[in-house]
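Contributing: when you submit paired examples, paste them exactly as shown. First protein:
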Amino acid sequence: MGIFLNESDIPSAELLHFYVVFENTALGITVIMVPFTILVMVFTSNSVINAYRLLLINELSWSLVLDITAALIGAVSLFPLPCYYGVSVTSALSHTQQLINFVVGIGVLIMKDFSIFYQLEYILVKSLAMDSKIRTLFQIVPKSGVVLIHLGIIVSVLGAVLGPIIYYLPNQGEQKRLFISLDPFVGKLYEDHPDIICFIDGENTAKALIVGFIALSATPFIGLVFLIIMYNSMHQSNGSTHTYRLQKMLFRSLVFQLIAFTFLLCLPVMMLMSALLFQLRDGPTITVICFCFVLMHTPIDCFMILYFIKPYRIVVAHLLKVLQTAAGDAVWLKTGVHVLKGPLGDETEMDIGWVEWGTVADVADDGRRCM
């Protein structure tokens, strides 16, 4: 029995096989869904939601990068140790390259959070009354100033979260020797998985993760506050019926997007961080399960966007109708054989082919006539 980990804490071969297959399948669906959703948005001509469309494209782009990064790592944690090994292609990279990939993945996750936050902000500002102080402030500040303010916020949060993680990146050799000396079972893990990466100095786990954990925990509640303010503003607004319906449509879409974001991204990542911060057992198995949920978020988010935003739903419904009609039509080829008399009285078969276009019903009618 190990001090940090037992053999029973490590996922079984069957679970790891399922994990790899699920990751590859989810990534394949994401790679199809994200470009399709973006194409639908790009080719949907609707001047009212064109600006909001850019925010959606921004979010989906970060989501795609995050899913690719996560799937290529295929991380299996060794929590409560701040280490992991990969079951995907990046496990063949050097330790330095894997650490860079890990830090980039955390940064992409933060950018995805910001992309959803800016959707909330955009709809909130649009739902406010024209004479509200916040809306007046946004109108006074030039667009370049608004962009600089947002960039400043992004850089500050990235620095606050990534700074401690980068600062406490450990020396891999020292961490390996330390953990093996404390727990012989860890030595066996290093023999089986020489690509193990420790991303935090074991003595400073809380210092490295506490800022990110608090920020991630607060994100759903910030979103909920935004939605409540937005809901009240919509019902107090004196805008036209058309404007109200538009705001209601985007509000409904954001509600379901935030629900998916909370249950498929925030909570699983918080569970991962909790397993490390609070030294929970079964950390490796928890990791596998949580990452499966994380990789489900982007396809479901695409579905939410295409379903709840009416102009996009109409385009998708039209495409499905066209595909259904095309699948219902059949192209069939009938080849006839005509027998001719040769000059010596022998019979020669000549194939005379012709193509007839029809439906499946036509083929059935021909079959009945031949009976």
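Second protein:
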Amino acid sequence: MKSNLDTDRPIRRILLECTDTYFSDWNTGIQRVVRNVARESTAIGRQCGIECKPIVRIGDRFLALPWTPRISRPQRNWKESLARWWPTQDMWDSRPVLRLLRRCGIRLRKLFYPRTLVRKLTYMRWSLKGETIIPGEGDTLVLLDAWWNRNNWLAVSQARHHGAAIGVVMYDLLPVTHPEFFKSNVTEPFSAALQIALEQGDYFVAISDAVRDALREYAEQHGPRRRLHPSSFVSFRLGSTLDLIRRNGQVREPLQRAFNRPGAQPPYLTVGTIEPRKNHVLLLDAFDQIWPRFPGAGLCIVGRIGWLCEDLVQRIVRHPQYGRALFMFNDLSDSELAYCYQHAKGLLFPSHAEGFGLPVVEALQHRLPVLVSDIPIHREVGRDFCTYFDPLSPAALTRLVCDIEATGTFPAVRQPDDFALPSWKESTREFLNKCLLACGRNQSQQSATSRAA
């Protein structure tokens, strides 16, 4: 398939496809990246004379939508909003109710949560209201969102046919490089979508150098017959600011109690979807050895419940320390997550594999000490500001935490006070520059966004 990159043709529009995030109620790393890049890109593009439009696909067409803080999260933080008129909503955090809901089928559970209805109504509203966008010559269509979750390829193929250059953002290749951590209904569709992306894409923008290099290697071994030039693979640095923090945002009482236990220090924090790759089992194994020596040590697990984790969740909620020194919250708002970062003793992040590891930099930005698994991406992101341990050794983490509890000192080479990452505005400017560079724009056009401060 012939590339649509033309070094002599200026790019007039950067179209950022954001469908999955716009109609999703998730708030994990991908959605945070999409929201922030979409929000910042419009102003940066306007300042440098490049039109940047967040778009979504509805049916067989792309629509440009106004991306304001209010409507960029049509379902997100629904529980926080619900609390304003239903003060008893904290009942959903109680053990009996959680056990009851877990026994219910998924269709019955949805009766308690109006998110599906809100999503459908939002979809219908914007299908009537949005401005139709037809990507063509002079455009680059960037698949910024979780493109493997949606069948966008017919619309993408039509955009290529009309002359648009196709960019693909890569968050990780984990379903193909670490399939043991995923169900087959994830690995097989992702693998198929990745092959199509390599066929359709003109350039690829990764969220880290590690992902960029892994994708380039994968493309050489498994990619399309057409050879992708090494310059087609670029990377950019992510920002790390929590963007959905509300002024005077509510922090539920159970969370405050977890971080203000009488006679005990604040708990250690871990943030991430509860699924095998995140390695929560190692944390529990380590703390089962830590608690007999340091009963005041605490562990707070924050993250939505994912897949292949039923036994782990049962182990947590049935643990004798649950509610005393072990806590779990599955639906925190950004305001509540910020509260955790501000009050925790340290972040523990034992993942087996990551595309970036956004909680690591979020914690460091909050000047929180970080203990993290020793894998290449964490070395790239955390540098000398983190303390590293073997993700296969509970004993290694046990020794580290026990030493910290005994001495009160975290052993990182450099303190988090000196850590700095780009803001989301700076990250987005770098992202847009990388897209333009990959599209072959001339140097004056590439530097335009650098001057848009």
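If you have annotations for the second protein, write them as plain sentences, like these:
The chain is about 40% helix and 15% strand.
The radius of gyration is 23 Å.
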